[in-house]
Write a structure and sequence with these properties.
The complex is a heterodimer of chains A (65) and B (242). Chain A contains 2 helices and no strands. With 65 residues, chain A is mostly helical. Chain B is globular and about 70 Å long. The chains are: A mainly alpha (65), B mainly alpha (242). Chain A binds chain B through residues 2-3, 5-7, 9-10, 12-14, 16-17, 20-21, 23-25, 27-29, 31-32, 35-36, 38-39, 42-43, 45, 47-49, 51, and chain B through 10, 43, 48-50, 52-53, 56-57, 60, 95-96, 99-100, 102-103, 106-107, 110-111, 113-114, 212, 216, 219-220, 222-223, 226-227, 229-230, 232-234, 236-237, 240.
Chain lengths: 65, 242
């Protein structure tokens, strides 16, 4: 009986954990894509750091997307 | 590869690309084992089934504090050695530490209602934890306010080291003041007061959350290095145009 009364608090805690951890993972994954695309886009326009290695085919293909 | 080699951003990127898939896999396995153990753990003789909230609340609280600890060490790297990777480490840890502190506050509130009869009290432990969350928000705001990353890093490093005073206050608040929050029950003189069948899942969940923290931190550091490279390229583009 007590477990049933307290169920919303337990479920609420685990749901909050899922939302917060999910948001963190999504933030990191989306930010990675955004930054990689931004660099590939700039490199496509011929702007590259002096120390940067030559553009890879993958970076070029991504910039074209 | 030695630790000092990783202080080079390019080498760090290569290290992150190699280690992240493995770290992510190990983290997922640790969570699978931890959650399985947590769901199978017996109810507490006093708190009943709500003890299951502890498997989230306690690791989140530890990692909220550890996040600030990581930022404090990185702040020393910024102020003493002026190393750009230290800035990157500090900036990347802030949102992750803030998220774990928020999770600690939410789960603590949801645990407090059935056990204490209230979601919140202005108790020393709860208040000092809330202060930590506000400090995280302050540091994140500071990073966003100052455009030049190296200037922002120095200001954020000073705020981080000042804010580190809150860590011992959180830890010892339950001993220094008469609080509604219970005292230490895991790491204490005389050993843990938690029964082994509940302590084991707690420690596995803590390990899983710690792995998650480092996985996210390395990934966020990789993103920050890429963001700075993109910024440098945009500045080069602007100079070429003007």
């Amino acid at each position: 009986m007590e477990a049933i009364n307290h169920l919303p608090f337990i479920v609420g805690s685990y749901a909050a954990a899922c939302v917060i951890v999910g948001a963190l993972i999504a933030w990191v994954a989306i930010d990675f894509r955004v930054q990689r695309r931004a660099i590939a886009d700039l490199e496509m326009r011929g702007i590259a750091r002096r120390s940067a290695p030559e553009r890879t085919n993958a970076a070029l293909a991504e910039a074209k997307e | 590869m030695s630790l000092i080699d990783l202080a080079n951003p390019s080498r760090f990127l290569s290290f992150a690309n190699r280690v992240l898939p493995w770290l992510g896999g190990v983290t997922a396995i640790a969570f699978a084992i931890g959650l399985n153990q947590a769901m199978g753990a017996p109810d507490d003789y006093q708190q009943g089934a709500t003890v299951k909230i502890m498997f989230l609340h306690v690791p989140a609280a530890w990692l909220g504090m550890m996040g600030w600890g990581v930022m404090s060490i990185a702040a020393l790297g910024t102020l003493v050695w002026r190393h750009p990777l230290a800035d990157v480490a500090a900036k990347s840890a802030a949102p992750i530490g803030a998220a774990f502190t928020l999770l600690c506050l939410i789960t603590g509130s949801l645990w407090g209602r059935p056990e204490w009869g209230t979601y919140w009290v202005w108790d020393a432990r709860l208040t000092s934890e809330l202060v930590l969350f506000l400090l995280y928000l302050g540091v994140i705001a500071l990073w966003r306010t100052v455009e030049d990353p190296s200037r922002a890093a120095r200001a954020a490093a000073i705020l981080t080291l000042v804010g580190a005073v809150d860590l011992p206050i959180i830890k010892f608040s339950v001993e220094w003041w008469n609080t509604l929050h219970q005292g230490s029950s895991v790491f204490r003189m005389g050993g843990s007061t938690i029964y082994p069948t509940i302590l084991a899942p707690l420690l596995i969940m803590a390990a899983a959350f710690t792995l998650l923290f480092f996985t996210l931190h390395i990934a966020a550091m990789r993103n920050e290095i890429l963001r700075r490279r993109a910024r440098t390229l945009r500045l080069m583009q602007a100079q070429a145009v003007s």
